[in-house]
Design brief:
globular, single chain, alpha+beta, 7-stranded antiparallel β-sheet, 147 residues, Alpha-D-Glucose-1,6-Bisphosphate, Chain A, domain 4
Length: 147
């Protein structure tokens, strides 16, 4: 299994971050690495909910929610022939510096090594940009007259 991750401190509470992060259909409004999100099944972020996501430089992918810990984390996976991709989104309020977000993507399966070599750099860039964009969106939402 090949794993990539990024973390970033947050300028808002974990509850505020969860409200933004868990509203997946609104990601294109604040997340530059996501162009479009379509909810395919389910009405809330819950196990079994399915989303189709369009990202620059990547083929559209269907993600199925596998686990949700409300207010704290969610995981989902996407599958294609020879590869399973697991993405984890974790909020923490226990760091001495304050709240933070951890984003992690793991590739597994027969073709995971090849996919990780081909897309690992882009995956790492996207994770860093997504963690930073979450914090920027939270800062913008906290400013009077902006959110």
């Amino acid at each position: 299994m090949r794993t990539f991750s990024a973390s970033h401190p947050l300028t808002a509470s974990p509850a505020q971050a969860w409200a933004l992060l868990s509203d997946v259909c609104r990601w294109p409004q604040w997340l530059p690495t996501v162009r479009r999100v379509e909810q395919l099944a389910g009405t809330t972020l819950a196990p079994g909910a399915r989303y189709k996501i369009w990202q620059p430089q990547l083929a559209p992918a269907v993600w199925v929610v596998t686990e949700v810990q409300p207010g704290r984390s969610f995981s989902w996976e996407s599958r294609s022939p020879g590869v399973k991709v697991l993405a984890e989104h974790v909020l923490s309020g226990t760091a001495p510096e304050g709240p933070s977000v951890l984003l992690r993507i793991s590739f597994s399966g027969l073709l995971s090594g090849l996919v990780a070599r081909l897309y690992g750099g882009l995956t790492q860039q996207y994770l860093v940009r997504e963690a930073q964009a979450l914090n920027a969106a939270l800062r913008a939402a906290g400013r009077p007259g902006t959110g």
